[in-house]
Specification:
This protein is 57% helix and 8% strand. By secondary structure, it is of the alpha/beta class. Strand 2, helix 4 and strand 3 form a beta-alpha-beta unit. Helix 8 packs antiparallel against helix 11.
């Protein structure tokens, strides 16, 4: 099933529940916050507020307000540009106060949290009561490409709408070259492994340069100290590196799962099942397990700030 088909299926389920008065008060929408999850949120909210005969019509005044993000009964929250997190006093608490007020039109009020996986414990402490007791005609939509990083205390209070497979949770220019490398035939230890380590290092360096360029563009109209600039670049680099390692870890878990005889339903990268099972056949359970342990060890070494290239080399030589 394509991503578009899956989105349509989930929207139709949402529509049926809405018509039957069975909507949950909160949903984790699993997909790209700038892609299919965003599109689903817009369509779902248009369904709630639409004035047309066929809902959502996408053309009425209320539907246009949803798209333009200026509907008075919808609050949109997304991480602040510099911190890439949420501000409790400036964003969370004002949103909660607004949610407690009567809606402008006597109907629904809604909250959309973009990149909800960036909510931390202090945010959770602030919103849990409202999530548990939201009141009548209140809806929370939490958009995230990384549901596994969403706080359990929040996730457990929401129903889940799945729009994409796990491999589509990852976004960025690094995904394509990394996936190309993983799909390549397995290489023996030694020089090929060292070449693979250099390839991963090159991906990271490319992303680092892109992060620096983006920060320069965002701060073009303001002065920024060198130390602050370097800290922000490093923060972005650490995030990308963690994503790369998480991708590789999930891939190698899938290989081990295939080697152990697991079915398609447990795979994170089900779309690459044929390649995964071929790799699993070549490695066997001992080889697949060693490969997974190697990348897990890599994560620990990177946390201790071992130089990236040496860390990649160590993991590939071991795995």
């Amino acid at each position: 099933m394509s991503s578009a088909d899956k989105s349509n299926e989930m929207l139709e389920m949402f529509r049926r529940n809405f018509a039957a008065g069975r909507l949950a008060h909160a949903y984790v929408v699993q997909g790209s916050p700038s892609g299919e999850a965003w599109a689903f949120a817009v369509s779902a909210l248009q369904l709630l507020f639409c004035e047309g005969l066929t809902k959502p019509c996408g053309e009425c005044r209320e539907c246009r307000k949803v798209v333009d993000r200026n509907h008075p009964d919808i609050r949109w929250l997304e991480p602040e540009k510099k911190s890439r997190t949420f501000d409790v006093d400036k964003q969370i608490r004002p949103m909660l106060r607004d949610l407690e007020m009567t809606s402008f039109q006597g109907g629904w009020k809604a909250v959309v949290i973009i990149e909800a996986d960036r909510l931390n414990d202090s945010h959770a402490n602030a919103i849990l009561k409202s999530l548990e007791e939201p009141g009548q005609r209140r809806l929370w939509l939490l958009l995230t490409a990384h549901p596994d990083q969403l706080l359990t205390t929040i996730h457990s209070r929401c129903q889940r709408i799945v729009l994409t497979h796990s491999q589509n949770y990852f976004e960025g220019t690094w995904v394509a070259p990394l996936r190309e490398w993983l799909l390549a035939p397995p290489q023996p230890a030694g020089i090929p492994a060292l070449a693979g380590a250099a390839y991963l290092k090159q991906i990271l360096e490319t992303e680092k340069a892109a992060i620096a360029k983006k920060i320069r563009e965002e701060t073009a109209d303001e002065e920024i100290e060198k130390e602050v600039f370097e800290a922000r670049v490093r923060s972005g680099e650490i995030k990308i590196r963690a994503e790369i390692l998480r991708y590789i870890t999930l891939w190698r878990r899938d290989v081990l799962a295939c080697a152990s005889g697991a079915g398609t339903d447990v795979l994170h990268f089900a779309g690459d099942e044929q390649t995964l099972r071929s790799l699993a056949k070549q490695l066997g359970i001992p080889g697949a397990l060693a490969s997974l342990r190697a990348v897990q060890g890599l994560s620990r070494r990177v946390d201790r700030n071992v130089p990236d290239l040496l860390s990649f080399e160590a993991a590939l030589l071991a795995g």
